[in-house]
Amino acid sequence: MKKIVLLFVFVLSAFAAQAQDIYWETNVEKAAQLSMKTNKPLLLFFTGSDWCGWCIRLQKEVLKTAEFANWAQENAVLVELDFPRRTPQQPEIQQQNSALQQMFQVQGYPTIWFAKPGIKDGKISLDRIGSTGYVAGGPAKWLEAANQIVGKK
Q: What is the dihedral of CA 113, 116, 122, 123, to 10 degrees?
């Protein structure tokens, strides 16, 4: 019986560890360079990480799952654009996030935009692909919507 319990705990730990292996970049320029190098679109996650209930729910139900981690590794460069109320942020990150919020006309959270970066006049530009937010139904439903946006049906 102990072996079964230990095996169960090990398997659950493996899934939890795998879901946490993904990396969310906070610097859009770095993420854009990686996106252009790997030919994967940016996934821009506009969130209020310490106050937005729907953002926290999306994280728990989708973005911190093994299914999402596997999908993200193959299909996107992840960028978190956070608008916290209690957590301090560097001024450059605040300015970058505010500029992107205006550029993508984000009015509510969570909002996720997929974008393809490029270079125009020596500067990074972002072409919109599509957007989504919270999708009920867990990772499978959310990933189905994401695949439609990025053209992987």
A: 10
Cα(19)–Cα(86) distance, rounded to whole angstroms? 26
CA–CA separation, 153 vs 149, rounded Å?
Answer: 9
Q: What is the dihedral of CA 82, 53, 23, 88, to 10 degrees?
A: 40
Model confidence pLDDT, tens digit, residues 71-90? 999 999 999 999 999 999 99
Residue with tokens 């530009």: 125
pTM for this predicted structure: 0.86
Please report the DSSP string for the chain in residue order. -HHHHHHHHHHHHHHHHHHT----B--HHHHHHHHHHHT--EEEEEE-TTT-HHHHHHIIIIITSHHHHHHHHHH-EEEEEE--SSS---HHHHHHHHHHHHHTT--SSSEEEEEEEEEETTEEEEEEEEEE---SSHHHHHHHHHHHHHT--
